[in-house]
Amino acid sequence: MVVKGLDFDNVSLVGVLDADGLLSFADFRVNERAFQLMEQVSGRAGRKNEQGKVIIQATNTKHPVLQLVQQHNFKALYQMEIESRKQFFYPPFSRIVLLTLKHKDAAKVTAAAEKLATLLKQDLKNYIVGPAAPVVNRIRSQYLMELLIKLPKEPGMSITYKKIIRNHINLLMSEQHFKSVVVAVDVDPV
Question: Per the confidence metrics, is the pTM higher than 0.85?
Answer without folding.
Answer: no
